[in-house]
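seq:
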Amino acid sequence: MNGTKYANAVGAVRAMEISLLGRNDMDQLIAAKTSAELSSLLAGKNRSGISQNTMDEVWEMLMSYAPDCSELKILLYKNDFHDLKAVLKAKISGRDPAHYIITPANVDADTINRAFTSKDYSILPKHLRSTAEEAYELATRTLDGQLSDSLIDAAALSELQKGAEVTGSDFMIRYAQLTAACADIKTAYRCSITMRSRQFMETAVCGTKGLDKNEMIKAALSGTDSLLSYLETTPYSEAAVRLRESPAKFEKWCDDVIMELAESARTKAFGAEPLAAYYIAKEAELKNLRILKVCKECGSDRETITERMRKLYV
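struct:
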């Protein structure tokens, strides 16, 4: 992982990093008074020429420099499993999933659809096969879309952690653990509010290092206060602090801890970590721009928008 075979790719990414939006850039965008002014400023700040609407060109750029960097593929697992849900729902309802597909991904929607139609799940990437088969059986047997969604979401987190372990990279392993922890906490918190059953939570919660699945479910079953009290005894005690403030503050915290991890790769000269960090940074930038646009459309004031902005890479 830390060999020199990605040296050229890392060099290219370092050059691209200067095009990322910084704090001064975001302050100017936040200060824009109209949508037209915001669009004009964004166009002027698009120094890389990469689309500010999707991650496809970012992925294509990384693959052009490091086509054999298999470690990066786990970054797309969340899109793979999202698309699995989208195609499954479309299959059952007779709708076209095209509007719900997220790219980039390791597998295209047509392949997922063929797997469901033929029941030949071997045509899917290994990390999707068993989940696709199980989710289809569950959805068609119970007609409970939320339950099948929860199964797929938990499987995505499990496969992400397995994939990260295979890479042997401490960075990727920690990324997977943080992603799983944030998702599990959010799921448990929602279940505690909506008073979901233990059976549902057993399916929906994945589990990860630092969070005991059984203990967290037990706490969530006793209510929100019990869940937050449990979280305060774990390495994710800060999550409890943020949730006591608001779910929105927790969501921001989740994004920020991932960005803090990405920042740790900036000192690396070789390996896949700087490439993964750049992808994560672009994802965060895109999310910030979406939040900004929505806030502008809703007429939010500058202070509110600033509070909602996620941590930046540069």
